[in-house]
Specification:
Csp_YhjQ (chains A, B, C, D), 4 helices, YHJQ-like (chains A, B, C, D), about 85% helix, Ferredoxin (chains A, B, C, D), Substrate Binding Domain Of Dnak, Chain:A, Domain 2, homotetramer, about 110 residues, mainly alpha
């Protein structure tokens, strides 16, 4: 796969992860309450949304520093996936976070 | 200095850096033209604005992952400072980037 | 007061409102639980944070469209202040939202 | 078309417009130079990227205030389309801005 295709795939994975996490937070976690609104979980979801957006924009700009962001994004997505996996009905979010973490990790190592 | 004061200082440094870089980009670099609007420089300025914002918000949320972001932010601020230092009349921007890099690096190492 | 001073004041009011709302959401509302984490309230807080940031950045860029954003921002800050005023211990957030709404409304009408 | 489908379409139009404008700015306007990097044009492009993102997130959160943002977003997208239409090789950007403006305007009037 060419470098440009890998970049496009990683941008898509970040966009999907940010969108799904934000929609899940407000459409599922907040209405569910209980463990779904524990501070640590909500904070991780917001961290994940913000960093996926920022990382995707570094790639869209063709930034020379995008790999640095991809490495950080992979770690935060992993942490978010782990937090979501402990809660009911968050499979879509877990999958989006794991896909994004994997894609970002490849992007980070390709540039290293 | 207490941990909370250090955190507040780092949030302020990130906020200042983001604001000054965005105002310099649109109020100084774009009107100046020439080397001030070379793609690599403008992209670095936009990278710096975005990541300083994201990093400050991780700290505002009390995120357990804020040190990870601070480490990345320090590197991008260094790169932006270096790019600005080669151009005329960007001393304020250089200083804000260097202050932010230093504060973020301390925050990152304190949490390590 | 000169136009530039008014603009600086409005940027500051937007920055303060965004920062205080985000810190209150994660530092007060989420730990408090109950009515503080009802979906409508949390969504309004996140709306307010996002739009205050966006509006401040339009002003920082010297955008010809900043008054359009200030008008919208004033309305969302009013709605957020109203939501916060019904909850315990959110006086700081109410005040920041009302200050920002007032400042944005002046900026919007000055440019009309 | 159901309300949910309209909402999804408008979110997609905002996402596309933000992505295409940011990629065009850094991948086409900055390398092209000249009129493509005039302050007013670059500022409008950045305004458009920011507001499309913010508007899409209001819709993703199911915010009761999303129509207010859609109305503002339509106006800024129109202004950006007009600025891009005067420059060479920006057809994709013009089209994305016009599509987004139309979709946002429908969303704003549907909620009025």
């Amino acid at each position: 796969m060419s470098d440009d295709l890998e970049l496009e795939d990683c941008i898509d994975a970040c966009d999907d992860c940010a969108s799904i996490c934000l929609e899940s937070l407000t459409g599922h976690c907040l209405p569910a309450g209980g463990k779904h609104v524990e501070p640590r979980h909500v904070i991780l979801m917001l961290d994940c949304v913000d960093l996926c957006r920022t990382t995707a924009d570094f790639m869209r700009r063709g930034s020379p520093n995008h790999a640095r962001l991809c490495a950080a994004c992979a770690d935060i997505c992993d942490a978010c996936a782990e937090s979501c996996a402990k809660l009911d009905d968050m499979e879509e979010c877990v999958e989006a976070c794991r896909d994004c973490a994997e894609s970002c990790r490849e992007m980070a190592s390709a540039a290293a």
